[in-house]
UniProtKB/TrEMBL annotation, chains A, B:
Pfam families: TetR_N. InterPro entries: Homeodomain-like_sf, HTH-type_TetR-like_transc_reg, HTH_TetR, Tet_transcr_reg_TetR-rel_C_sf. It comes from the Bacteria. The keyword Transmembrane does not apply. Gene3D superfamilies: Homeodomain-like, Tetracycline Repressor, domain 2. It comes from Brevibacillus choshinensis. This is TetR/AcrR family transcriptional regulator. Keywords: DNA-binding. PROSITE patterns: HTH_TETR_2. Signal peptide: none annotated.
Amino acid sequence: MTRKKSGKGEMSRSRLMQAAASEFAANGYHRTKVSDIVRRAGLTQAAFYLYFPSKEMLHQELMDVFFKKLWELSDAGRKVTPLKGWEVRGRMRENLLDLFRFFAEMPELTAIVLTQAPEGEDLHRKLAQIVAANLRSNQEAGHVRADLAVEVTAESIVAMLYRLTLRFLLTGEKTAEQLADEAVALLAFGMLQA
Amino acid sequence: MTRKKSGKGEMSRSRLMQAAASEFAANGYHRTKVSDIVRRAGLTQAAFYLYFPSKEMLHQELMDVFFKKLWELSDAGRKVTPLKGWEVRGRMRENLLDLFRFFAEMPELTAIVLTQAPEGEDLHRKLAQIVAANLRSNQEAGHVRADLAVEVTAESIVAMLYRLTLRFLLTGEKTAEQLADEAVALLAFGMLQA
C-alpha cells in the first residue's frame, strides 16, 4: 500500500480495480482468478500483489467504493429540502443525472449490484427507506404533494431507476442526460394533462 | 374432459388448478408431482386424470389462463382514449385496481411469472410495448402530456407495478384498493406541488 500515493502506482491500482470489475461481471466473483485480472489490466501478478493482498480484498474495496457513493447519491433528495419551489424540478433532474452518470461510469458493478439475488431485496428496501425519509422532509417543506403515499412512492422511484438503468443506460440505448430528462418529466408532474 | 361442464366436475377441476399453482410456486414445476397436487386438492390421482391428461397440460392451461388475462389487463390503457378529460384519472385508478385484484387472486402464479428469469425480461418488454402503444394513443387524444417520453414512461410504469405487487400486494401489506389509490396519485400528477 506504500505505492498508493504515487501517480503511476495510482494508475496501476485503478486499472486493476477496473479490470477486476469487468472480470467479476463477466465471469462471476468465484470463477475470476488473479491471473484473469492482471491479464485484462496488462500488468503482472507481482504488480497485483503490490496493491492488493488478495482477490478478496480487491473485491471488498470495489464494493466499499461503490456503496459509499450509492448511499450518498440515494440521499440526494435532502438537497431539495432548503430550495425555493421553482428550483426543485431542476434539482431533481440534477440528482437523477448524478445517479445515472455514476451507474454509467461503473456499468459492470452496477449490473452486478442491481441484479444480484437475494441480497438485492435488502438493497432495494434500504434505498427505498433513504428515499422515503427525504420525501417526508420534502412534504413538510411543501415541495412534495401532501397526498402522496411516501412508502409506495419511494419504492416506485427505486424500481423505476433500477429498470431504466438496466434497460436503457447499461444497454447504451440512452445517455444519462436523456434518462434524467425523461425520468424527471414523469416524476415531477405525472402523466396527465392538468 | 367430458366432465368439464358439470358443476361438481368444474369445482374439482378448479381445485386441482389452484392446488397445482400453489405447489408449482412452493416447490417449482419440476419438483412438483401429480401426487402432491392431488394431496393438496384433497382428491385422488384418478380424479386428476379425469380432468387433465398430464401435469404438463395442467401447467400449460394455468399459464394460458393467466396470460390471456394479463394481456387484457395490460392493454386497459385503451379504455382511456375515448373518455372526457375529467374521467381519465378515475379510469386509470380502475385499470390499476383490476390489475392488482387479478394479481391478488392468483398470488402464486403472479410470483412465478413476475420473478422468473430470464424469460422475465421478454415479458417485461412485451408489457411495456403494450403500455407504450396506448400511451401514444392517449397523447394524441390529449389525455397524456405531450412532453412525456413514451418508452421510458411505459418501462417505468411496468417496473413500478411489478415492484408494488411483489413488495406490498403479495406480502399482504397493502390491499389492491390501497395500491391503486397510491399508485394513481403518483402516476397521474407526479410528486411536486404544481
